[in-house]
Specification:
The complex is a heterodimer. Chain A is built from eleven helices and twelve strands. By secondary structure, chain A is α/β, with parallel strands linked by helices. Chain B is 70% helix and 0% strand. At the A-B interface, helix 1 of A face helix 2, helix 3 and helix 4 of B.
């Protein structure tokens, strides 16, 4: 490992340097926090061993900067404090500021070596996790890209099929007998279904590809936009869609609007009576719980869990058209926004879709814990 | 009054006061000045074929300590509690590492005295610290001289 030592006392610095080199690690040494920070920026550093009280920049400021750097750059750095400040209060402060370990003077070299072994283990685990994460992100991006390209490329031959079928129907209606007309209608219905499928696959891939920008949006406006998009279906079925007071959350307006549109659209579609859809939200701890309740056909409890999988549909929905992607898009969107989604249902008694989104006020962080490591 | 013991009494503080008033170890008993275990730990760091690390560490310590003692004197003379605390703190770190047990305790006392901003007792503590360093220096010089030969 590459170890950076920040220590203003010349004797301690020499001792630490030799103790670190003794274990076969490469070593950089600085005589104050500022010099250490400059060395840190210029080199790859796995471990920092820092004194607390130093001229120009103290160890706490050095530790803060190393942690901020970590947020921007790729790697993790393991930070030790080595100080004669041997009380619990200083130890607590150091750990809160992001230190990984705390050693006190006089230092027993054997103790340092033991702790360095722990640091090496943590760094090795970190590298494994980081490599796996990079690999996963790469393959996810590849898949999303693949789905997106395939959907795009499928669109144009499909448009040709739809276009030519329409021409056939319009210009050659006189030449076609009843059977041929039925076949052409069948082709056109199939192209419509396929078009819906492609659009949904594309939407699903897009939710995965883009991280939602955190902008404050009023859910009431989002719901009204969804209702406007569903205008035709609502008018056709005479549906009644209502919403209570809705909060402002940090989310991507387009994606969240699609979630409401899918849920409201489903409520209207899977219904034998006049559809009634009620949307509400209530605060539960650090998040908002949203409910979309309908008077539709409902489903078995087991199906309520299954339907969020891509291409999964409840048997009760079989007689209605659908691609089986809408709820998968909802789930992916909500999870990417830091929430959960599920359905509570009973056959013949309607369904309530519930999902959560983080509330805008930052949750109170427990002072005793270091901030979570961002990989 | 020769000394004081602030409440709450801890074993550490009581020990510090008692150590101060224990019959002083003279040059005749230099083993008391530096903890042999601390020196043994530093010897563990010696790499094969490298320069004598212990001699190097001792040389650096003996070079850096007199200016720090001077800084402590300046701080007391100028009643600069913050400078006194900082100088005592850094001398405490290196002294504890080299095994200068008594100096470490006296530095800790100075840190305490600087924290209360009552520097009256500091002059006496500092005098003891000078004496303790004389004994440590004699011991370490003998040691480094012996290992060089």
């Amino acid at each position: 490992m590459n170890v950076l030592i920040a220590e203003d006392d010349a004797m301690m610095r020499l001792m630490l340097q030799r103790a670190v080199e003794h274990q076969g690690h490469a070593c950089l040494a600085a005589q104050d926090g500022l010099e250490a920070w400059q060395l840190f920026q210029a080199h790859t550093v796995d471990v920092v061993i820092s004194d607390w009280l130093m001229p120009l920049m103290d160890g706490i400021e050095l530790c803060r900067r190393v942690r901020q750097q970590m947020d921007r750059a790729v790697g993790y750095t393991y930070v030790f404090f080595l100080t004669a400040l041997d009380d619990k209060e200083h130890m607590r402060t150091a750990m809160q500021e992001g230190a990984d370990d705390y050693l006190t003077k006089p230092l027993d070299p054997t103790e340092l070596w033991t702790r360095l072994r722990v640091a090496a283990r943590v760094m090795s685990l970190y590298r494994q996790v980081a490599a796996h994460k990079a690999e996963l992100e790469r393959s996810n991006a590849e898949l999303a890209q693949f789905a997106s390209v395939v959907s795009h490329d499928l669109r144009s031959p499909l448009s040709s099929i739809a276009g030519f079928s329409q021409l056939l129907q319009e210009h050659y209606a006189d030449h076609l007998d009843a059977k041929a007309t039925k076949y052409v209608t069948g082709i056109m219905d199939a192209t419509k279904r396929m078009h819906a499928l492609i659009e949904d696959v594309l939407a699903y891939a897009q939710v995965g590809a883009q991280a939602p920008p955190a902008e404050p949006i009023d859910c009431a406006i989002v719901v009204e936009r969804a209702v406007a998009n569903l205008h035709a279906a609502i008018a056709e079925r005479g549906a009644l869609v209502t919403h209570a007071d809705l909060p402002t959350v940090d989310a991507d307006a387009t994606q969240l609007s699609r979630v409401f549109q899918n849920l409201i659209g489903n409520a209207i579609k899977y219904c034998r009576e006049t559809p009634r859809v009620a949307i509400s939200a209530q605060r539960e701890g650090a998040e908002w719980l949203f409910c979309v309740r309908d008077n539709g056909i409902g489903m078995e409890a087991a199906d309520a869990e299954r339907i969020f999988g891509i291409f999964q549909r409840a048997p009760s929905a079989a007689e209605y058209p659908g691609t089986g992607i809408g709820l998968a898009i909802c789930q992916k969107t909500i999870e990417r926004h830091g929430g959960r989604i599920w359905a509570e249902s009973c056959v013949g008694k309607g369904t309530t879709f519930k999902f959560t989104l983080p509330a805008r006020e930052a949750p109170v962080r427990d002072g005793g814990c270091p901030p979570p490591v961002e990989l | 009054m020769d000394d004081y013991l602030p409440k709450p009494v801890t074993v550490q503080r009581l020990e510090a006061v008692l150590t101060r008033w224990r019959p002083q170890t003279g040059p005749g008993a230099p083993d008391e000045a530096v903890d042999a275990n601390a020196l043994a730990r530093l010897r563990d760091l010696q790499g094969a074929g490298r320069p004598d690390l212990l001699a190097e560490l001792i040389a650096v310590y003996l070079r850096d300590t007199p200016p720090r003692l001077a800084a402590l004197h300046d701080a007391v003379a100028g009643t600069d509690a913050e400078a006194l605390r900082r100088a005592a703190h850094s001398l405490k770190g290196s002294s504890s590492q080299i095994g200068a047990v008594q100096m470490t305790r006296l530095c800790r006392d100075l840190e305490e005295q600087a924290r209360t901003t009552d520097l009256r007792g500091a002059t006496e503590t500092l005098r003891r610290l000078d004496d303790a360093f004389d004994r440590v220096r004699a011991h370490l010089q003998a040691l480094a001289g012996g290992s060089e030969s």
